[in-house]
Amino acid sequence: MNWTEIQDELRRRLKEKRGAQSAVARELGINRASVGQYTGGEKDIPLAHLDAICKVLGVTLDIKEIPASTAGESP
Asked: Nearest Cα to 35, choosing from 24, 46, 51, 50?
């Protein structure tokens, strides 16, 4: 999954979960309009906000190592 796909999935989940945008805004200390710009695709989701968004949504992101023999190769 690439960064665009991750953002799309987080956006979808933020839109679906009632109150999630407000909860993310409170967790990050930013206004709800900024979160709305993330969910509307007007702004990219900052990497620094991933923890708070995942916490509110109750999801985790797992980062796995790519074996050296396949690093850089296209699937």
From this structure: 24
pTM above 0.85, yes or no: no
User: CA 10 to CA 55: how far, in whole Å?
Assistant: 12
Contact between 52 and 27 (Cβ < 8 Å): yes
**Whole-angstrom distance, CA of residue 27 vs CA of residue 46:** 14
Sorted by sequence, the CB contacts under 8 Å of residue 32 that are 6+ apart come out as: 21, 22, 25
Instruction: Give residue-wise pLDDT tens across range 32-67.
Output: 999 999 999 999 999 999 999 999 999 998 888 878
